[in-house]
Known about the structure:
Elements: E1 11-15, H1 31-36, H2 38-44, E2 48-51, E3 55-56, E4 68-72, H3 79-91, E5 95-100, H4 110-117, E6 130-131, E7 154-156, E8 162-164, H5 179-194, E9 199-202, H6 242-254, E10 261-264, H7 271-275, E11 285-286, H8 289-293, H9 298-315, E12 320-322, H10 331-334, H11 338-354, E13 358-362, H12 385-388, H13 431-434, H14 441-454, H15 456-460, E14 462-465, E15 472-478, E16 484-490, E17 496-497, E18 503-507, E19 524-525, E20 529-534
Parallel strand pairs: 1-2, 1-13, 2-5, 5-9, 9-10, 10-11, 12-13
Antiparallel strand pairs: 3-4, 6-8, 7-8, 14-15, 15-16, 16-20, 17-19, 18-20
1-deoxynojirimycin (NOJ) is lined by residues 61, 64, 101, 167, 203-204, 265, 326-327.
Amino acid sequence: MTDSLWWRSAAVYQVYVRSFADCDGDGIGDLAGIRSRLPYLRDLGVDALWLTPFYASPMVDGGYDVADYRRVDPAFGDLDDFDAMIADAHAAGLRIIVDVVPNHTSSAHPWFLAALAAAPGSTERERYLFRDGRGPDGAEPPNDWQSIFGGPAWTRVEDGQWYLHLFDPAQPDLNWRNPEVRAEFEDVLRFWLDRGVDGFRIDVAHGMIKAEGLPDVGPVPGGRQIGLLGKARLPYFDQDEVHEIYRAWRPILDSYPGDRMAVAEAWAETPQRLARYIGPDELHQAFNFDFLDATFTADSFRKVIDGSLAEADLVGAPTTWVLSNHDKPRHVTRYGDGPAGLHRARAAALLMLALPGSAYLYQGEELGLPEVLDLPDECRQDPAFPRTGESRDGCRVPVPWSGTAPPFGFGPEGGAPAWLPAPATWREYTVEAQTGDPGSTLELYRAALRVRRDQPALRDGTLRWLEAEPDVLAFVREGDDGSAIACVVNLSGAPVTVPVAGRPLVASAPLDASGSVTHATPAVLAPETAVWLELSSVG
Length: 539
Ligand code: NOJ
């Protein structure tokens, strides 16, 4: 791999800034906290960090409601903290990807305040999607669109007009058919590129253009339009004209040295439509949520892997893999929670990290953190919670670093309580408790990331499936230099024979007593366990 193609096989660590490390003791994670933990991240062995929004925001949606795209929220620090953090990250060999939130602003953004103060039809309102309502006196919303967070996607303002918000009312959607909006965001990209960022994660990348005339969706099965996400085209997502935006962004990224990149958070009806976001004149990557949605079975994973690799072939770009993020219950819990869920999560991690393409890790997964299911309702801050009863707070609980009592070193001694409480049981999950314990999940991730870095086959190698017993996934990655690494994952509930001979490099659970796997003594792989083998001869 040439250095300039770093993103093609990078292990990217997602930092949910509010919950990573609190340096100033206000109970909220901050940029100085990230800076102080860069040695941890470097030693973990990741290549890049993706930071969730740290811009000035009223924090209605955890910072995905941006009031000033060029300012750091005081809770997270200031631009000097950002500059110091990125300088140290680069010195440590870590690239920095930042979130950009172009679909909507905060309702506290000066543009929206100006729109509210201005009259219907004004240029100020033209930056957003204001419309007259339907029905007598326009008292009905302009169409039947629903907010992703529940309820109608429209809110009425004092003079009787309505504005569109696909998310919370505090997140008004911008009008991307307005050239002023396009120019503003191109400038925002340049602002952060000038400060040295290596890439952008584009929030709701499929959402900026709405179908002309804002047509109704019509009746949908189950009544909730969100159920159609990724299954059917909605008039507010994945419209063809959205690609014009990325065709304008790409030359901006390309005009900077150092192979800057962008990854889309995009949902599309088919792999072919998702692939349209990627390519030399648009974006570099799109998240592959199918992997996160797969169940812990060989069939489910195999289907997603084959589909994703075929999709990547369509555009000649590597795919991405992700098991958890700040919007979904953590995969330990999705796979059954408790020791069984953790056992499976460890195997899934080795599967993901052995696949071609880049892997996005979510902070805390390297510690095997489960979802916190019993947060008191009054602590929950997800704006969807009051409307849908569902909340994403359980995967956003601050990282446990050290000590035996909450908040486990998240902030300095004597600081304010963390913004979300960690359960007392997390004393077993701290970085301190796991460091040096060869059986810990942290040491498993460290070992796997080290091998992934060191082995060209795992960075660039092609993937070839091997014959294996039912409910076993086995493939080999073969590098140009002749090296080959096999990954064997037993997804069944019974021990299986390993179908290939090689030297074990990393395993998600202890191997057989000898610890070695050879043709002469076919090794057995325990249930729901994964192993990487260095091959001398390919089976
Ligand atoms: C996707 C982000 O990941 C999520 O956290 C946020 O609520 C929505 N976009 C709206 O910005």
